[in-house]
Amino acid sequence: MDESRRRTLHGRRRGKKLRAGQQSLLETLLPRLALALPVEPAKIDLAQAFGGSLPRDGVWLEIGFGAGEHLVWQAEQNPGVGLIGCEPYLNGVAKCLAHIERAGVTNVRLFTDDARLVMAALPSRSLSRVFMLFPDPWPKTRHHKRRLVQRETLDRLADLMMPGAELRLATDDPSYLPWMVEHACQHPAFEWLAERPADWRARPSDWPPTRYEAKEIAGQPAFLRLRRR
Ligand SMILES: C[S@@+](CC[C@H](N)C(=O)[O-])C[C@H]1O[C@@H](n2cnc3c(N)ncnc32)[C@H](O)[C@@H]1O
After folding, report:
1. CA 206, CA 121: separation in Å to the nearest integer?
2. Rg, the chain, Cα only
3. Helices (H), the chain
């Protein structure tokens, strides 16, 4: 994917000037946690990425972790899981590093660019959970093609997720919800786990509010859980 197309898809990489402490975390902690991409066609060696052996409870991926509070909460609650978080917005990455340092978790790896580069480099059937929480809604019809939830992304996730693995999506955008239902819930590789509206209107207890949900939410949020068939 060429660089200009990737920039259009994932938006800005920097916001306001980082504080000295944030800059220092980017320089000292990030290099220890950064996930490196192998030279194609090699795939990411997940055992090596997580310190020499595969995490005993599997590997989870969060796409667009924002400031990382959900990622780090999951890492704390699930110490046997290895979590990979992808986020190109460096101010968010710096906040996530501060959460990681405060929580003292060692089971998180970060990729500070477009998640699709990681998705292209992960081995098939390597993920047991994937989160895409409040992805940028791109509400204008002419921008819908920029949405992260697309047939192409879901086909790739279908390959990366093991049978029974869970995909969690959230949105507060009234036009993204039917789009997610159409593209994800009706995708042949995924089964939507909702049985009644309460199942997608109420946030599950093992799903803490993200920063976006706590501060910027516009409409009523929806929480979609799907299972890889
Ligand atoms: C609306 S914010 C939500 C952030 C977070 N999930 C939350 O709920 O607080 C969407 C995030 O997705 C990130 N993002 C957009 N495109 C991405 C991509 N291709 N790969 C990884 N992250 C992406 C953006 O930088 C932004 O931080």
Report:
1. 28
2. 17
3. 3-10, 20-28, 30-33, 46-49, 69-77, 90-103, 115-121, 151-160, 176-180, 198-201, 211-215
CA distance 114 to 64: 9
Tens digits of per-residue pLDDT, 27-70? 999 999 999 999 999 999 999 999 999 999 999 999 999 999 99
pTM above 0.90, yes or no: yes
- Report the C-alpha gap between 129 and 185 in whole angstroms: 16
Active site residue 155: no
Catalytic residue among 136, 159, 172, 199: 136
Centroid of ligand 1 to alpha carbon of 74 (angstroms): 17
How many angstroms separate the alpha carbon of residue 7 from the centre of ligand 1?
Answer: 13
What is the CA(64)–ligand 1 centre distance, in A? 3
Nearest CA to ligand 1 atom 16: 10
Contact 63, 92 (CB under 8 A): no
Q: Is the peptide bond before 41 cis (omega within 30 degrees of 0)?
A: yes
State how far the Cα of 16 lies from the Cα of 201, in Å rounded to an integer: 34
